[in-house]
Amino acid sequence: MDAATLWQRYQDWLYYHEGLGLYLDISRMRFSDDLVMMLQPKFDQAFQALEALEGGAIANPDENRMVGHYWLRDPERAPSPELQEDIVTTLNKIQRFAQKVHKGEIHPPDAAQFTDVLSIGIGGSALGPQFVAEALGSVEAPLQIHFIDNTDPAGIDRVLAKLKDRLASTLVIVMTKSGGTPETRNGMLEVKATYEQMGLSFAKQAVAVTGVGSNFEKLAKTEGWLDIFPMHDWVGGRTSEMSAVGLLPAALQGIDIGAMLAGAKEMDAVTRIPQIKGNPAAMMALSWYYAGNGKGEKDLVMLPYKDSLLLFSRYLQQLIMESLGKEMDLDGNVVHQGIAVYGNKGTTDQHAYVQQLREGVANFFVTFIEVLEDRTGQSIEVEPGVTSGDYLSGLLQGTRQALYENQRDSITVTVPRVDARIVGALIALYERTVSLYASLININAYHQPGVEAGKKAAAAILDLQKRTMQVLQEANAPISLIDLASKAGAIEQIEAIYKIVRHLSANQSTVQLSGDLSQPASLMIRLH
Predict the structure, then answer these.
(1) Is position 102 annotated as part of the catalytic site?
(2) Contact 367, 413 (CB under 8 A)
(3) Helix 33-54, helix 280-292: angle, nearest 10
(4) What are phi and psi of 497, to 5 degrees?
(5) How would DSSP label each residue in 242-291?
(6) How far apart are CA 180 and CA 166, in angstroms?
(7) For residue 119, which of 310, 247, 256, 218 has the smallest C-alpha distance?
(8) At 176, is the secondary structure helix, strand, or coil?
(9) What is the mean pLDDT of residues 177-181?
(10) Which residues contact 332 (CB under 8 A, 6 or more apart)?
(11) In the prediction, which pLDDT does 453 show?
């Protein structure tokens, strides 16, 4: 394509949102007009499906749930007065709670004010808050935030070690819909034990974000926690950043949650337009469909050219991969859909994997995130007439051009700056794109049977561990691995039992292994 034709294509497919100052450029995705025409009927259906979803249609048949995260930023669109009131009441409660904490009206027993927030959650209860904290948090924030987002003992120790001198002034937020998520429960119990060891009252410094009527809500009430905020069953974890899950920690950090909601609402409005051109989510979904042939055949590489957006790719991994990674379509056909997402940031990637992007396997498409404002205030010149920000801009444009010259497709999203309103808009843009793309490929974006399968398998391993320990206790003598598996009634799970006893023996357990460690079948196991 010659320069004049490419320039015209750029103008034809450039989207600009005046209110947000946001641009979307899909001109470097080499889809044809024929593809756009072919997809038009699918898009018509997708727009109708999204309208029904926002109207309260059941979107998660596995759990008979509506999906209404967009109501959080526009309560009047919620399908009942009760839901509308619930959303507004929760938002007001979050804002009042944060104000009281900032003023010291709510404070820990042994300090005049809270200084830090420790957020305990996993998946959607961690990735959104982490992304927003990285993007919008300030070194001068009224409270600094820390996260426990795994059941890794060493990782928990590291977070608590950083906070140790300030645990007496740390507000703990525990986020779990039911209380049954093992990783979150484990993190809470570890933190609770540390507080008790230090003579601190965990309950007087703890807040719950959980399902209304859940066992966890009952626990928090019984123990007298500081407060409880609702986690609605019509908001999935990966779309929960605009709920109490994301808004409470953001408000405590002094982030303008009203601006986040406003930005998301603006993006929602324009992505309701039932046409491809002029609807940025539809334009993005078109590009995704073209890139992967409607089958996810190429990965999505996120390259935000701004340090504060470093975690955007991690956030989008869950949103996109958990939503689109499905074995079956809506008609029961095996399709194995999905789009893999990875990325770091520009220009770090110039010195990492851009070499492969340009010259290696062409199994990807790129999304550049460009931020026009370099910094608040003036920049020095690092060369005559050139600033560090000019370099950043030049490297983005140069990489985009170099990739295109080698038949590598890219999308560019340009925003004026990184602020709360823009972050809200970006989150909404990708949420809406996922919904539309899921309709194009005929899958349900709002259930995740694969996640539940993994949880059930993990629970089965822990049950096997209990049976294994019972056999060892009853044996009261060294026992071979095969006999151990046989007596546990799990001879077909001998590998799992080997890994269980190996782990236990490495952690100051009473389990002892003897024999040739390179030959697992030869090992003898005993309690000591």
Answers:
(1) no
(2) yes
(3) 120
(4) -65, -40
(5) TSHHHHHHHHHTT--HHHHHHHHHHHHHHTTSSSSTT-HHHHHHHHHHHH
(6) 29
(7) 247
(8) coil
(9) 88
(10) none
(11) 73
Q: Name the amino acid, one letter, at 421.
A: R
Active site residue 351: yes
DSSP annotation of 521 reads G
| Contact residues for 10 (Cβ-Cβ < 8 A; gap 6+) | 25, 27
3-class SS of residue 203? helix
- Mean of the per-residue pLDDT values of the chain: 95
Place of tokens 């641009």: 23
Residue of 351, 383, 405, 492 marked active site:
351
The candidate with the shortest Cα–Cα distance to 466, out of 434, 428, 500, 440, is: 500
Task: Write the burial class of residue 436 (CB in 10 Å: 0-12 exposed, 13-18 middle, 19+ buried).
Answer: buried
Side-chain half-sphere exposure of 386, counting CA atoms within 13 A: 10
Tell me whether the omega of the peptide bond preceding residue 115 falls within 30 degrees of 0, making it cis. Answer: no
DSSP secondary structure of 323-370: HH--SB-TTS-B------EEE--TTGGGGTTHHHHHHS---EEEEEEE
Mean pLDDT throughout 396-403? 96
Name the residue type at position 89.
T
Burial of 131 (0-12, 13-18, 19+ CB in 10 A): buried
Average pLDDT value for residue range 24-49: 98
Which phi and psi angles does 175 have, rounded to 5°?
Answer: -115, 115
Please calculate the CA angle 136-431-366 and round it to the nearest 5 degrees. Answer: 80
Segment 222-246 shows an average pLDDT of 96
DSSP per-residue string spanning 433-486? HHHHHHHHTT--TT--HHHHHHHHHHHHHHHHHHHHHHHHHHH-S-EEHHHHHH
Note every long-range contact of 159-164, with CB atoms under 8 Å and residues 24 or more positions apart, other chains counting: 159/118, 160/190, 160/191, 160/194, 163/116, 163/118
Maximum separation of any 2 CA atoms in the chain, in Å: 83
Catalytic residue among 162, 221, 277, 455: 455
Full-model pTM = 0.95
Q: Which residue do the tokens 């410094």 mark?
A: 205
Amino acid at 144: Q
As a whole number of Å, the end-to-end CA separation of the chain is 74
Indicate which residue of 54, 190, 241, 322 is catalytic. Answer: 322
Active site residue 322: yes
Residue indicated by tokens 């066992």: 215
Confidence of residue 449 (pLDDT cuts 50, 70, 90): confident
